[in-house]
Write a structure and sequence with these properties.
Layout: H1 2-52, H2 60-67, E1 75-79, E2 84-90, E3 93-99, E4 104-105
Antiparallel strand pairs: 1-2, 2-3, 3-4
Helix pairs in contact: 1-2
Length: about 110
């Protein structure tokens, strides 16, 4: 009887550890997806600038329609003559890219 109890306790501990790892992996995967969505959009954003001469007036719909139907999951926050800001949200975390030179980060564009 004690052996069964020990086995149940060990199983409970292993299950608790596994659930913790699974939750962390899910969050990391969502973050990777958001960053990937931004990286996928960058060539379309640069093509938009090459065609129009600036980032002003850029929208997600325009990027999808005219430059890359694969642009998904991003929001164009702002755009002007020389810079832009796009964001992507996944699992409650928002990632930003202030372009064209900034890295993708969780710091909002200024």
């Amino acid at each position: 009887m004690i052996e069964v109890l020990v086995v149940v306790v060990v199983m409970a501990i292993l299950l608790a550890v596994a659930v913790g790892f699974q939750a962390g992996a899910r969050e990391r995967a969502a973050d990777a997806t958001a960053r990937s969505n931004i990286r996928t959009a960058v060539p379309a954003i640069e093509a938009y600038r090459a065609d129009t001469g600036s980032y002003a007036g850029m929208t997600t719909a325009a990027l999808q329609t005219s430059y890359s139907p694969g642009v998904e999951g991003i929001t164009v926050v702002s755009g002007d003559a020389i810079s832009y800001c796009v964001s992507a949200t996944a699992a409650g975390a928002t990632w930003f890219k202030a372009g064209p030179d900034a890295q993708i980060s969780q710091t909002a564009c200024s």
